[in-house]
Design a protein that fits this description.
395 residues, Transcription Regulator spoIIAA, Rossmann fold, 3 domains, alpha/beta, Archaeosine Trna-guanine Transglycosylase, Chain: A, domain 4, 29% strand, seven-stranded mixed β-sheet, six-stranded mixed β-sheet, binds S-adenosyl-L-homocysteine, 11 helices
């Protein structure tokens, strides 16, 4: 039986024709039969022309398109998509980075696979499905990964949200689609890190900061560095390796600080140049007397939805203001936002407002983004979630 057919309201087909993969529920005119969440559906315009095929879901995004045509979306299709993602990583060079075995293999819309993330940690692949449709395909993806990597891949772990797993037939109880549980020591640009994909945030590690961490390492020599929101200590390790005089790693989570300490030790550094601080970032920055040479601000997403955007911008302004006040003249601020709903201009506006509030003179040295293994479809600008500025704070 062909997939259910969804016909869009008149005039609601423009964004699909421009390869934007989301169909909002309000754009749906009619359906020939009601699909179940996770079902594949075909989408057509008022004239009955097929515009694409995708996964149906309940919620404001009703369909996430995986194909902009009328092709068969079968096992061969999915395997081809995973292989194309691998080829893109090969072409961008991330597979061949020296001393590096962590990278994102599939970045959702950026790889034409909305709702699916696959991260590679050495011999382990971690799948995170954000839609029922993708979750139902976990076993197909695991097989595709085995075909690509062969014996080099010993484990595939399903890190999808619990509410999806309960619905999905055949979801493994312990999360392992194959292989057993052993935590991994992985490498990023030669630096070892322990990655706990089971209990860690996201898929276990913030791979998206790889290139930005390297830049920080290059700018850390001789400096006193504060790494706020340190999580597993990625920036701290690079700062120590780059010759920082002293590094303070701050997080509000004790578990995160333990992971940071472990990673600092794994990299051969002791406590002589490193200190952990268990605190709220803004409170610490407002109350501490220390003036730093370099501060990293990499908070969790302040706005997950458009409706939270205004509050998020205020949050970025507040925290950047507090950090700018704690930097010595000539010092450096690495400041980031990973809120999808706050775009580059808004973020820069918030940082500008913070600089005005402090009366300090600030120059932009670098504008930072997510790396090439987190690609952005030109037609889906929402995929560009990570933005950062490296600022020199002059006076
Ligand atoms: N910079 C990290 C990723 C940051 S994840 C990296 O490169 O890997 C966000 C971190 O912020 C989490 O570890 C979380 O525990 C911490 N956090 C959240 N709210 C906080 C707050 N108010 N003050 C300090 N840390 C906070």
């Amino acid at each position: 039986m062909p997939y259910p057919l969804i016909t869009l309201k008149s005039g609601k087909d423009q964004s699909v024709r421009r390869f934007h993969p989301w169909i909002f529920s309000g754009a749906i005119g009619s359906m020939d039969r009601p699909p179940e969440p996770g079902d594949l559906v075909r989408v057509a315009d008022q004239q009955g022309r097929i515009l694409g095929t995708g996964h149906y879901a309940e919620g404001s995004i009703a369909v996430r398109l995986v194909s902009f045509g009328d092709e068969r979306v079968d096992e061969a299709f999915w395997k081809r998509k995973i292989r194309e993602a691998w080829e893109s990583r090969k072409a961008s060079g991330v597979l061949d980075l020296t001393g590096n075995n962590m990278y994102r293999l599939v970045h959702a819309e950026g790889d034409g696979l909305p709702g699916l993330v696959i991260d590679i940690y050495g011999d382990t692949a971690v799948i995170q499905a954000h839609s029922m449709g993708m979750h139902q395909l976990c076993h197909t993806f695991a097989e595709a990964l085995r075909e690509i990597y062969g014996p080099a891949l010993t484990r595939v772990y399903d890190k999808s949200e619990v509410k999806l797993s309960r619905h999905a037939a055949g979801a493994p109880a312990d999360g392992y689609l194959f292989g057993d549980h052993t935590e991994g020591i992985c490498r990023e640009h030669g630096h070892p890190f322990r990655v706990d994909w089971v209990r860690g945030q996201k898929t276990g590690f913030f791979i998206d900061q790889r290139e930005n961490r390297r830049l920080l390492g290059e700018m850390s020599s001789g400096r006193t560095v504060l790494n706020t929101f340190c999580y597993t200590g990625g920036f701290s390790v690079y700062a120590l390796a780059g010759g920082a005089r002293e590094v303070h790693s701050l997080d509000s989570s004790r578990h995160a600080l333990e992971l940071t300490e472990e990673n600092v030790r794994l990299n051969g550094f002791d406590d002589s140049r490193h200190r952990i601080i268990h605190a709220d970032a803004v409170e610490y920055l407002k109350s501490v007397d220390v003036i730093y040479d370099l501060i990293v601000l990499d908070p969790p997403a302040f706005a997950k939805k458009l409706s939270a955007r205004h509050k998020a911008v205020q949050g970025y302004r507040r925290i950047n203001e507090a950090a700018l006040r704690r930097i010595r003249p000539g010092g450096i601020l690495f400041t980031f936002s990973c809120s999808q709903a706050v775009d580059q201009d808004l973020f820069r506006g918030a940082v500008l407002a913070a600089a005005i509030d402090t009366g300090r003179q600030v120059r932009i040295l670098h504008q930072l983004h997510q790396p090439a293994d987190h690609p952005v479809s030109l037609f889906h600008p929402e995929g560009e979630y990570l933005k950062g500025l490296v600022l020199q704070v002059d006076h």
